[in-house]
């Protein structure tokens, strides 16, 4: 069963793009199964930085890429990404599921309007129309790729949905702006030209690939704590970045999955609103943000930084049945005298081991920390020298920290990333057997 899932074990931005890119060399097919262009997967190779929002991260290895039905697809962003990538790669071998839902310009406008109406309770969304597109999907008035390709269906669906949206804009939000069906139709027709040749039945192709024993990599977007069901609701995204999203979002069954790898940073970050129990103090927080370049790949917003949180790590292992961990950015913590791990939460003098459902409780939780000796601050070149020598060349303090991570998680570390470059990676365990 050569299927592996790479998903986020924290609040997104864990370095999934780099990890997926690294493993893509041994994969035949790479699949995105949820989220949309709220994701920004950064890949660095040959000294160049690439930020992918929709196209799976294996693109630079020239592999077969699939955008599954669980993704919400912004036609404009995808068209741009295709245009940007084409001169840099030999061939874009892409399949877009015909069941994928489409983010239209009014979804983005509604995302912004809804956020402004939330006032102090705003979620801090990326304003990429993610929530409104998934809302339409669940309300059964969304537009799918298969509808986009059929003039009659496209016209009918746009008429119905735009009529309702205009009523909402006028009567609920008291907005003077109205959506023009003519403009949206023209937008759809323009962009479908760019994508129509990539459309097909992703579930059929994927299951065939599995039957042929091909190596399939599933690339999660966002992270476990942003999951609509299991995250810090309502400060979450509108999809399932956790393991269940793979199956509903791609059209395969769970028996095909061989390994599930959770990607985590050596610390945590969060962008947008919502509680973060182990948030660092101002000085170390700012140092980590600057050193780790912790600014959103999609929105450029500064990310909040926190110490590694064992309650979250255990939660991610349990929810996703993780087989292993890929840990990134431990180099960023280099130069600190002490590094901390939040081992549990305290509330009203009592210890809380499990991640609570209630945000009211979570907001009152205080972190219980264990301290570890820090490791040296090295340059990118020095880390690369260490990477070449392998795991035992890592500073002893870092290896102690990694042992603690494995002890908390109860699963082994598969990969250690010590820099943005593809080469700055120590692989401890392989994910594909052949
Ligand atoms: P939305 O997905 O744009 O609706 O945003 C909902 C929440 O998820 C906000 O707190 C965003 O900052 C967060 N979020 C969405 N996508 C990402 C991501 O790729 N990385 C980190 N946070 C994200």
Regions with pLDDT < 50 over 5+ consecutive residues? none
CATH class category name of the largest domain: Alpha Beta
CATH superfamily of the largest domain: Adenylosuccinate Synthetase, subunit A, domain 1
Radius of gyration: 22 Å
With helices defined by DSSP (H or I, 4 residues minimum), what is the helix count? 14
Total domain count: 2
Mean residue pLDDT: 95
Gross CATH architecture of the largest domain: 3-Layer(aba) Sandwich
Strand content: 15-25%
Note down, in words, how this protein is organized.
With 434 residues, the chain is of the alpha/beta class. The chain folds into 2 domains: 3-92 and 201-427, Adenylosuccinate Synthetase, subunit A, domain 1 (Adenylosuccinate Synthetase, Chain A, domain 1), CATH 3.40.440; 101-197, Adenylosuccinate Synthetase, subunit A, domain 2. The chain has helices spanning 16-24, 75-85, 105-118, 130-138, 145-148, 151-172, 181-195, 202-211, 244-248, 282-291, 310-320, 359-364, 380-389, 396-409, and strands at residues 3-8, 29-32, 41-45, 48-52, 64-67, 72-74, 94-97, 101-103, 199-200, 216-219, 257-265, 268-270, 304-306, 308-309, 324-328, 338-347, 350-352, 366-373, 413-417, 425-427. The strands form 5 sheets. It has a 10-stranded mixed β-sheet with strand order 9-7-5-2-10-1-11-15-19-20, with helices on both faces. Strands 14, 16, 17 and 18 form a 4-stranded mixed β-sheet that branches. A two-stranded antiparallel sheet has the order 3-4. The longest helix has 22 residues, at 151-172. The radius of gyration is 22 Å and the shape is globular. The model has no long low-confidence stretch (mean pLDDT 95). The chain binds inosinic acid (IMP). Inosinic acid (IMP) binds at residues 12-13, 38-40, 123-126, 128, 130-131, 221-222, 226, 235, 237-238, 271-272. The site of inosinic acid has 20 residues, from helix 4.
């Amino acid at each position: 069963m050569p299927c592996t899932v790479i998903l986020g074990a924290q609040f997104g931005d864990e370095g999934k793009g780099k990890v997926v890119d690294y493993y893509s060399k041994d994969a035949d097919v790479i699949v995105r199964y949820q989220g949309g262009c709220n994701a920004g997967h950064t890949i660095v190779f040959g000294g160049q930085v690439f930020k992918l929002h929709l196209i799976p991260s294996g693109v630079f290895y020239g592999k077969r890429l699939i955008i599954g039905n669980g993704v919400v697809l912004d036609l404009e962003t995808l068209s741009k990404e295709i245009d940007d990538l084409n001169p840099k790669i030999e061939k874009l071998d892409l399949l877009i599921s015909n069941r994928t839902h489409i983010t239209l310009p009014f979804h983005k406008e509604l995302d912004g309007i809804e956020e402004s109406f939330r006032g102090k309770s705003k979620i801090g969304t990326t304003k990429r129309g993610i929530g409104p597109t998934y809302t339409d999907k669940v309300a059964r008035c969304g537009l799918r790729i298969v509808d986009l390709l059929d003039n009659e269906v496209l016209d009918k669906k746009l008429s119905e949905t735009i009529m309702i949206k205009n009523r909402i804009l006028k009567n609920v939000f008291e907005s003077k702006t109205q959506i023009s069906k003519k403009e949206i139709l023209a937008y759809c027709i323009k962009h479908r030209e760019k994508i129509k040749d990539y459309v097909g039945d992703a579930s059929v192709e994927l299951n065939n690939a599995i039957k042929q024993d091909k190596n399939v990599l599933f690339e999660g977007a966002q992270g476990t704590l942003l999951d609509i069901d299991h995250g810090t609701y309502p400060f979450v995204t509108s999809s399932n970045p956790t393991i269940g999203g793979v199956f509903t979002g791609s059209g395969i069954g769970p028996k095909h999955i061989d390994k599930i790898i959770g990607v985590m940073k050596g610390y945590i970050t969060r962008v947008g609103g919502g509680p973060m129990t182990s948030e660092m103090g101002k000085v170390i927080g700012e140092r980590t943000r600057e050193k780790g370049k912790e600014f959103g790949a999609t929105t450029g917003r500064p990310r909040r930084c926190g110490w590694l949180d064992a309650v979250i790590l255990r939660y991610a292992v349990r929810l996703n049945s993780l087989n292993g961990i890929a840990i990134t950015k431990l180099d960023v913590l280099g130069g600190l005298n002490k590094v901390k791990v939040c081992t549990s939460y305290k509330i009203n003098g009592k210890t809380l081991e499990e991640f609570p459902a209630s945000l009211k409780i979570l907001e009152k939780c205080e972190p219980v920390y264990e301290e570890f000796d820090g490791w040296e601050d090295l340059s990118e070149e020095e880390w690369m020298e260490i990477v070449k020598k392998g795991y035992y060349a890592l500073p002893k303090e870092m290896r102690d920290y990694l042992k603690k991570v494995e002890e908390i998680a109860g699963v082994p570390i598969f990969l250690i990333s010590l820099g943005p470059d593809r080469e700055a990676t120590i692989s401890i365990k392989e994910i594909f057997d052949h």
